[in-house]
Automatic annotation (TrEMBL):
Domain DOC: 42-229
UniProt GO cellular component terms: anaphase-promoting complex
Alphabetical keyword list: Cell cycle, Cell division, Mitosis, Ubl conjugation pathway
Protein name in UniProt: Anaphase promoting complex subunit doc1
Species of origin: Imshaugia aleurites
Region (Disordered) location: 1-61, 214-247
This protein's record includes keyword Ribonucleoprotein: no
Biased composition (Gly residues): 223-234
Acidic residues: bias regions: 35-50, 236-247
Polar residues bias: start-end ranges: 9-22
Pfam family, one: ANAPC10
Length: 247
């Protein structure tokens, strides 16, 4: 039976369809990295940064990032998507969980610290169903006395999510004194199982080191104690390094 014109056109369209020659699918993360490499650094914005380096953010003037003073751990993670990827300043890298909810990130400081700002970097455009929509933040002196101090809910976040510390500190101050900070991801977009978090940063006040003793040289070039060259400079412990308090 001769083919009808419509059937002939259908066969041609199938014959003209592109075929898969066995090439592997393009990695979306590698494509993202190529895009980032091609963009001029001057075009970066706060909503779409090319780096998560806090020293490049003028809004953080007077604050010091203290995450390096703590040990970090996560409940689960995919290969190459653990703590190292989470703490990397490249927004193309991220922590990806690999287990049941809630997904836990625990930050344990070696000494009591006074925290004035916490922020988490999320990107719904890149992560979609991996994007958290409900997170809880807990703090305490150890793993067995953690207390929830903030809960965040959001839809399609893109950029830094600030944790509200108002009223957390003594006397209603916007500060948290703790040894341990824990982030709990409870829900993801569209009920996604695993999660993506691209950055977490913790800040304290950047109080400059104060001089407790100032060397005052006299006309003979001697220090305050009368010994030449003995004028020393003492250092006072900054406020973000606090001793434990018993309440």
């Amino acid at each position: 039976m001769p083919l009808l014109p419509a059937q002939t056109r259908g066969m041609n369209s199938m014959n003209d369809a592109p075929t898969n020659n066995g090439d592997e699918a393009e990695d979306p993360e590698s494509h993202l990295q190529e895009v980032v490499d091609e963009v001029d650094l001057d075009s970066a914005t706060e909503e779409d940064p090319l780096t998560l380096d806090p020293t490049q953010d003028p809004s953080l003037s007077g604050l010091r990032e203290i995450s390096s003073l703590a040990s970090w751990s996560v409940s689960t993670h995919k290969p190459s998507c653990g703590v190292d990827a989470l703490r990397n300043l490249n927004p193309c890298q991220f922590w990806q969980s690999d287990g049941p909810q809630p997904h836990l990130l625990t930050i344990h400081f070696f000494k009591l610290v006074k925290i004035v700002k916490i922020r988490v970097y999320l990107d719904f455009f890149l992560d979609e169903s991996y994007t958290p929509t409900k997170m809880q933040f807990w703090g305490g002196t150890g793993m067995y006395d953690l207390v929830q101090f903030y809960e965040w809910r959001g839809e399609e976040p893109r950029g830094w999510v600030d944790v509200d510390l108002d009223g957390v500190g003594v006397g209603g101050k916007a500060e948290l004194r703790a040894f341990v900070v824990q982030v709990r991801v409870l829900e993801n977009h569209q009920n996604g199982k695993d999660t993506h978090v691209r950055g977490v940063q913790i800040f304290a006040q950047d109080d400059k080191v104060k001089k407790s003793r100032v060397a005052v040289a006299d006309e003979d070039g001697k220090g305050t104690n009368g010994v030449e060259g003995s004028g020393g400079v003492g250092m006072e412990e900054p406020d973000w390094m606090q001793d434990p308090e018993i309440r």
